[in-house]
Design brief:
With 128 residues, the chain is of the alpha+beta class. The protein contains four helices and four strands, in the order E-H-E-E-H-E-H-H.
Length: 128
């Protein structure tokens, strides 16, 4: 197995007869279920984690499936994160933010400054 990653992608079918894209997204969820990768649907995309190559392949398979449904064009936004210093998962990222919230944001900012030498987290909100 290669490099692990966490990813978030939003696949947007374009040029469809209806503005509703639920059937296309449902098909993507079926594809993801078949991969065996861990994934979680949310309101504007899907979180996905696993081997970097397998994650990219799963997104490619989603594209193929949506095209096979007759969609002429797809635009997809993808964010992929990798860490080499410690294991990371979608669940861990969310839990980290919840832990900060339970302690109080100001307190955890000071803790983060002290811990920065041991754990250099950077990125957008929820990318802890």
């Amino acid at each position: 197995m290669g490099m692990n990653c966490t990813a978030d992608f939003c696949l947007v079918p374009m040029g469809t007869e209806s503005p509703s894209v639920g059937a296309y997204i449902a098909r993507c969820q079926q594809i993801l279920e078949q991969t065996g990768l861990k994934y979680e649907l949310h309101g504007y995309g899907t979180g996905l984690e696993g081997d970097f190559t397998e994650v990219c392949e799963a997104i490619r398979k989603c594209h193929e499936a949506v095209h096979e449904m007759g969609c002429p064009r797809i635009a997809t936004d993808i964010r992929i994160g990798t860490r080499m210093d410690k294991a990371s998962s979608l669940e861990q990222k969310v839990q980290s933010v919840r832990d900060h919230l339970s302690k109080g944001a100001a307190e955890t900012v000071e803790e983060s400054k002290r811990d920065r030498v041991d754990d250099e987290d950077t990125g957008a909100v929820l990318a802890s």
